[in-house]
From TrEMBL:
Catalytic activity reported: a 2'-deoxyribonucleoside 5'-diphosphate + ATP = a 2'-deoxyribonucleoside 5'-triphosphate + ADP; a ribonucleoside 5'-diphosphate + ATP = a ribonucleoside 5'-triphosphate + ADP; dZDP + ATP = dZTP + ADP
Cleavable signal peptide: none
One BP term from GO: GTP biosynthetic process
Name by which UniProt lists this protein: Nucleoside diphosphate kinase
CDD domains: NDPk_I
Protein source organism: Waterburya agarophytonicola KI4
EC identifiers of the protein: 2.7.4.6
Active-site annotation: 115 (pros-phosphohistidine intermediate)
Subunit architecture: Homotetramer.
Length: 143
C-alpha cells in the first residue's frame, strides 16, 4: 500500500492546528502508520530541503523549520501521495483552493503549515530520512 511523508510545520503546531490537520487525513480514510513530535536539527532540515539549497529562501526556510517543534507523520492509503497533496492544497496559501488545509488556514508561502511528499519516490526517500523502520506500525483498519 502506498505511503507518504507528511510534516506539520512549526506554524501549524504553534497555531494549534495539529488536531484539525490529523482529523482531515483520518476523515478522508487514510491510515496513520507513524507519528512523532520532534525538534528538527539543521542537518535534517538541510537534507530534507536540499533540492532548494540554491534558492534565496533556503536559509530562512531552514531557520523556520528548526525554530520550533514539528509533527512528522507517515500516512498510508490508496493513491495517498497525490490525494494528500489535494488535501494540503497549493504551495502558496494565498492561491490555494478553499477547502484545502493551506487554503483554509495558511497565510503566506513561507508559513504554509504543512509539507507533503510530491511523488511516490520522494515519499520513500523522505520516510527513510525521517523515520527508522521500527517507528512505523504495520496495521490495517477494520472496514
Ligand atoms: P514545501 O511544500 O514544504 O516545500 C518547500 C518549501 O519552501 C515550501 O513548502 C515553502 O514553505 C517554502 N517556499 C517555497 N517558496 C518560497 C518562497 N518564495 N519564500 C519562502 N518560502 C518558500
Amino acid at each position: 500500500m502506498e505511503r507518504t511523508f507528511i510534516m506539520i510545520k512549526p506554524d501549524g503546531v504553534q497555531r494549534h492546528l495539529t488536531g484539525e490537520i490529523i482529523h482531515r487525513f483520518e476523515r478522508k480514510g487514510f491510515t496513520l502508520v507513524g507519528l512523532k513530535m520532534m525538534q528538527v536539527s539543521r542537518e535534517l532540515a538541510e537534507t530534507h530541503y536540499s533540492v532548494h539549497q540554491e534558492r534565496p529562501f533556503f536559509k530562512g526556510l531552514v531557520d523556520f523549520i528548526t525554530s520550533a517543534p514539528v509533527i512528522a507523520m507517515v500516512w498510508e492509503g490508496e493513491n495517498v501521495v497525490s490525494a494528500a497533496r489535494n488535501l494540503i492544497g497549493q504551495t502558496n496559501p494565498t492561491t490555494a483552493d478553499p477547502g484545502s488545509i493551506r487554503g483554509d488556514f495558511g497565510v503566506s508561502i513561507g508559513r504554509n503549515l504543512i509539507h507533503g511528499s510530491d511523488a511516490i519516490e520522494t515519499a520513500q526517500t523522505e520516510i527513510a530520512l525521517w523515520f527508522v523502520e521500527d517507528e512505523l506500525v504495520d496495521w490495517k483498519p477494520v472496514r
